Amino acid sequence: MKFPDDVPTLTHGDVTLRAHRLDDIEAVVEQCVDAESVRWTTVPHGYTAEMARSFVTQAIPRMWETENEWIFAIEATHADGQRRFGGSLSLRDEGSRRAELAFGAHPDVRGRGVMTAAVNLLLDWGFSALDLETVIWLANRGNVASRRVAWKSGFTFGGTLARWLDHRGEYPDAWTATLHRDDPRTPTHAWYDVPVVSGRSVVLRPQRPSDADRIVEGCADESTQHWLPFLPSPFTREDALTYIESGIEAAATGDHLQWAVAEPGSDRLVGVVGLPRIRRDSAEVGYWTHPDARNRGVMTEAVARLADHAFSPTDAGGLGLRRLFVRVAAQNTGSQHVALRNGFVHAGTERQSEVMRDGSYADMVVLDLLRDEWQDR
């Protein structure tokens, strides 16, 4: 293929895919020095206009001529009302009618659906003009924005490849997903957002890396370790960061939701509450409280605010669930008290069903709460 003559122009709504031009160079530099681009892509550090010019005038034409990679510029309307370069995306030839999807957005167009529209334009062209069978997507683990685009475009997620990507000499884990030409272009699972839910004495919010030290204090506590034997022991700061990241990944895969419970004024973490198992219209509730916040009623209110969100209809921003349940060791009276104060009722006992930290077997009490009961309280 000859560049730019053989590069098609593809348009849907406000988004156009076209050949790169010299007047894109300034915006290419803006994108490539942006902190998020540097963090998640392999763009060279200290990116300059000379590098951008070489990219547009030499590297891109060579990609098209060798047909190793079919790369397009994205054009879209920016916040100032002007249409201009909004990023690049491509299909990299993997042989046997397979290709890898790659994309990066200019910071001015992020969060507006531009990249999702661009990706779907490119996929339509790739499956028809290139007769592709399957497209793969790879991204550094933790690149939630890229994953959301792939999710919206209907990719099926295959898990995480340990230490797979070459990222400037480092080898981070890779999220991976694929899309077959016959797959529906719609999400294959729910993506659970973690909204801020405010109460009188607590705020439920997404967990952040700055919570790590408080999470270590809470999860390394002797009582927490005893009742939650699945936690690593000893529990380190690295474990805390993994704990936070796993919560983000679980929300993206539709497996579970997890909030930090924070004080309204200081924003200091005083515990964690979540839905570790969501199955259709039912979910398990899990929680732990930081040692210095126990016996103050904070977790009782946190679970109440969680129940509000879980039982609220989806068109009101909630989860539309019908039932919540808690599994707690029979001797863990503190956790049972939190559930009972919120109207959960005893539904049964699983005898000797959980192994504690000391190797003993504990009966697990099951308490549950139905939406109608919560609304009628």
Give a description of the structure.
By secondary structure, the protein is α+β, with helices and mostly antiparallel strands. About 30% of the residues lie in helices and about 30% in strands. The protein has 11 helices and 16 strands. The protein has helices spanning about 25-35, 35-40, 50-65, 115-130, 145-150, 210-220, 220-225, 235-255, 300-310, 335-340, 370-375, and strands at about 10, 15-20, 70-75, 85-95, 100-105, 135-140, 155-160, 175-180, 195-200, 205, 255-260, 270-280, 280-290, 325-330, 345-355, 360-370. It has an 8-stranded mixed β-sheet, with helices on both faces. Helix 9 links the parallel strand 13 and strand 14 (about 325-330). It is elongated.
Number of strands: 16
Radius of gyration: 25 Å
| Outline | elongated
Q: Helical stretch count?
A: 11
Mean pLDDT: 96
Give the biggest beta sheet: 8 strands, mixed
Helix content: 25-40%
Helix/strand order, N-terminal first: EEHHHEEEHEHEEEEHHHEEEHEHEEH
Per DSSP, what share of the residues sits in E-state strands of 2 or more residues?
25-35%
Order of neighbouring strands in the sheet with most strands: 1-2-3-4-5-6-8-7
| Cα separation of the termini | 69 Å
Q: Low-confidence parts lasting 5 or more residues at pLDDT below 50?
A: none
Sheet/helix structural class: alpha+beta
